[in-house]
Structures are given as C-alpha cells and as structure tokens.
Amino acid sequence: QVHLVESGGGLVQAGESLRLSCAASGRTFTITAMGWYRQAPGKQRELVATINTRGNTNYGDSVKGRFTISRDNAKNTAYLQMNNLKIEDTAVYYCNALNLATIFWGQGTQVTVSS
Questions:
Q1: CA distance to 48, 50, 65, 67, per residue, from 60 (Å)
Q2: How far is CA 91 from CA 10, 26, 48, 80, in A?
Q3: CA within 20 to 30 Å of 85's CA: 18, 33, 91, 110, which one?
C-alpha cells in the first residue's frame, strides 16, 4: 500500500552534518504523518522525529536542537537534517509513515559517526 525507501546514510566525523531522505510511493495521498526512528546494535528502536500533515513536529530528547524533520508533499518525500553529529548518533535510521491505521516502515539506512 505504501512503499518507503531511505537514502543518504554514510560515514561522517563528529561535528559534521548529514541529510537523510525518505521517498514514499503507492497510496501516498492518505499518509497523515511521517517519522524517523533509529536503532543501534543491542539497543531498542527509539524515536528521532515525526511530522504530521499540519506541520507539527515532535523530537526525541537526544536530538532536540540538532536535527530537523521536514517534508515535500509534491515529491512525497520526508527529510531529516542532522547537524553537529555525535558518536552516539551511530545507528540504522528507519523512516515510517502513518496511513490511516497502518504504519509502514522502510528498510533503513546506516549512519556511522566517528571521532
């Protein structure tokens, strides 16, 4: 029903920036919210940021002031701008989308931050 593909991950040094993209296809006209979550090996998946159709945003405490979520409805794409990256930001980042009562997930993209 909804297919999500993340891109933009890679290897960066602490203090640098990176922008992730999440392209949605399928029944995109019924998507009401999109978000980013991340999971490091041996840890639980945690909230990074969400954005709904009204533009309201929500951020995890560890990324407030450093990360910004945005969307481009014409391109059916959500973005995550990550600034001042820290080593603890290293994780697989997953995009999701809320379509009516169903949440769809992308395959994830690896972000590695080195010192």
A1: 5, 9, 10, 10
A2: 11, 27, 11, 14
A3: 33
- Other residues' Cβ atoms within 10 Å of the Cβ of residue 80: 26
Instruction: Give the C-alpha separation, 64 to 45, whole Å.
Output: 17
Partners of 18 in beta bridges: 82
Residue carrying the six token digits 């010192």: 115
Q: State the distance between the two ends of the chain, measured CA to CA, in whole angstroms.
A: 41
Tens digit of pLDDT for each residue in 35-90?
999 999 999 999 999 999 889 999 999 999 999 999 998 888 999 999 999 999 99
Q: Which tokens sit at 24?
A: 């949605």
What pLDDT digit, counting tens, does each position of 88-109 carry?
999 999 999 999 899 999 999 9
pLDDT in tens, 8-26: 999 999 999 999 999 999 9
Residue 12 to residue 90: CA distance in whole angstroms = 10
